[in-house]
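2-oxoglutarate dehydrogenase, mitochondrial, Sitophilus oryzae. Tokens?
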Amino acid sequence: MLKIAVANIIQIIKALNTYLAQRRLSKSEKFGTSAASNKESFLNGDSKEYIEDMYKAWLRDPSSVHASWDAYFRERDYQRPPTLEPVLVKKQLAPTNTPKTTVRTAATAPSVSNPASPKEIDEHLNVQAIIRSYQVRGHLVARTNPLYEMFDINDKTTSLSEKFGKSPPEVIRYHKIESSMMNTPFLLPESTRIGGSETSLPLKEIVKRLELAYCRHIGIEYMYINDVERCNWLREHFEVPGVVSLNKAEKRLLLTRLARAVLFEKFLQRKWPSEKRFGIEGCEIMIPCIKTIIDTCSQLDGEMIILGMAHRGRLNVLANICRKPLKKIFAQFHGLEPEDEGSGDVKYHLGVYAERKNNVTNKMVKIVLVANPSHLEEGHSVCQGRVRAEQFYLNDDEQKKVIPILMHGDAAFCGEGICYETINLSNLTNYKTGGTIHIVVNNQIGFTTDPRFSRSAPYCTDIAKVVNAPVFHVNSDDPESAIYVSKIAAMWRQKFKTDVVIDIVCYRKHGHNEADEPMFTQPVLYTKIKGMKNVWEKYCEAAKQQGIVTDAEINAYRDTYDKICELEFAKAAKETTVRFGDWIDSPWKHFFKNKDMTKCEPTGVSLDVIKHIATKFSTPPPGDFLIHKNLQRILRLRMDMVKNETIDWALGEALTFGSLLKEGVHVRLSGEDVERGTFSHRHHVLHHQTKDKTRYTYLRDLYPDQASYTVSNSPISEYGVLGFEHGYSMVNPHSLIIWEAQFGDFANNGQTMFDTMICSGQSKWIRQCGMVCLLPHGLEGQGPEHSSARVERYLELCADDPDYLPPDFTNLAMKQLFDINWIVANCTTPANYFHLLRRQIKLPFRKPLMLMTPKSLLRHPEARSNFSEMKEGTEFQRLIPCKERASENPDNVKKLIFCTGKIYYDFMKLIKDQKLDDKIAIARVEQMCPFPYDLVVKECNKYKNAKIAWGQEEHKNSGCWMYMHPRFETALKGKRPILYNGRPPSASTASGNKIQYQKELKNLMASIIALD
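Tokens:
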């Protein structure tokens, strides 16, 4: 605030004259600086011309110059050019309905007879500060909490300072306001829209309108947004008087929608009073809010709405948003036997896909509710991936057709890390979805935890500020305000393509669930809640007073809806089974039709295709693209391999992706540093060495009609990105979606996603997916965290019985794949890697693949394959038998070792060095799950005189041993013992001490060559 008298300003001008005389400023600089040189000096030469230009600018808009210049131009002795007579700024010429009083404002044009006084300048600056205070902090005193005060939700005309005003609101308490100012008109600045068509208002009216805009039942947070256009857009939609209102038709529609939400919960409470259902009582307005968002998005080119939400209110969303038949919802309460595959899930975790006509726009809208486990916000990143994929396949480049809505609980939104990880994706090139509409069901409690114990931030929504998302806090007991902010949120999303948050401040009618007793922990709060009417009843009373609806209409609607529910309840009671297939949230139309589930399409490709892709991948970028000198060497080595018709790991991977792209399969590779590859092996994206942001992506121009290839470095967000890619993979089965951990242990942070979504999705939700997780694995002496991908965890989650031996080995591989929940593998050759990834697409069904990938093998001279191993007629080898000297005379073999992964090469080198390769045979299990019983039995029978051992580099309580041991015993029917060769048990995955590591490795190798 400027509090310097005009006389003092002149003294400052004189004192700084010398400084500015030495440093001549450009006009753009001068306009933003103070009048810091004396008049005589500045009125010479160019400075005189400059001052005249600035004076012109000041006449047009006094706020365009520094406040000291503003005061300077008002002095009597300023000699303005004769052509520049004082004029009134445009705002003062506009008509006004305010009293005919002199408008006190620093923006008033200068006048010799009426100069602005320092007091008037102070008053004007105070008014400016007051307006900004309401915009910045008005939400702090907004009446958004329905539990704090009972008030008339329809009274929108009275100022809060008059209605509640024992003291000034907090937002203006520290600003100097004298009583004489209240009736004085002030010119409204460009930074507010409270005047509507009026350009000046008395301060009393300014405060009143600001309170109605910012301190009533909507609290708006937006002043941190660093885009003036967006801030002004919000002001247009909240500050202009009368904008927050509904017409009669909209109010009747709101009554109907609110009634359905309330009466549905009442019916469930009446029929199943002690059954868990996680109802939405206390926040029933959520249902009309979602419907309003769908209406608005449909009007603004939206075609598909994808919702992610936890369990609270989920059944109501299924019934009233997705329009799932009530009979099917009620049947879930009866505990019926399933008639199809899977174990199913509780009713408030199920998802659904629906396509229906929107009654407001008469347009068809697809609505998807993504299945979600109990882990609250976990499905949100999955939902975002699903949205991004739908946008990709619909060619929705503007990202207006497919809109994500995420529902949050207040405690979960601020407490669960997945929320930040998901929000952080919102503006990243290969992950953004054009903005998400977040709706927070703010129960003001987390299970039994008060907000003061569950978060440090003032609001549960503060996390959204990191992406400049506006936040609308709204009172759940003011339905019209809630509907309005829902409409604005949808408009914001479609216009600006960024996130927006609706914080519905409400309460939870019952405990955490309907069987819970909240009075144990919040007795005072729930004593108050028990006496509250639901929002529909309150709104009905208000609507009757306004002549919107009658008692007869209200009763008729209640009776009609109850009859509908009773009829559907009777139908559900006659059901004897339920179908989990009715709850699929991502149906793949026609994918499973006319397919033989016992046959896999060939995975080999022609040599011409192999040579073409390999050559392209080994050739420098076209034109004058300058690459790093080390990359030039790498490309030369690749080309040498192509000439010799051999491949390493990186080239084998490129052949996999390229051949699928040629066949029209979209390939997406995502993860930390995947473009180059963590171990500098991949180099799918090259960077020009002298031109910033100039990149060349291999595999995008292999063929003129190929599918799209996306390769993208992800943020350091394993949990969120893993969920995103999982959601992406469920949209189209004709796509290869790959997530790579930088090191295999990075997947530890996404373990919840593996446990509850990926490995069990088909069982719970009849939802297949073919995503691939590449998990670099292998003890390389780099310490515990960068050694093990914890393969034992993925094997433990495999749903196969270790005691069951298939009676018939005919076509066993396909039978096992069809029955298993996911695949766990560890390849040792580029060719097998090639076939395994291609098999993901060629199978007649989809299963997730957890693939342990190498580190040292990426450049190992023995880890090579020939073109002939990938040509037509070749396929994936679940087990690679011994091909060394021992296989030539199997009867003389003393020991048969089974192993998996890169340790094979270490074992083989040791055995050859010890000249034991005729006594010890090594077989590689490339696919651990499903377990290759047929191939294991065949190999064991071949070496009938040999001891059988499982060898691994991991510790005994890690790695594959715990999974393999019982299955080997089952395969051999207990007739031959299975030895263990490996490290002893350990709590840590690997030693971080080099000497200890070498000692363990020495002991491991000694056990391998021990024949006694």
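The chain has 36 helices and 28 strands.
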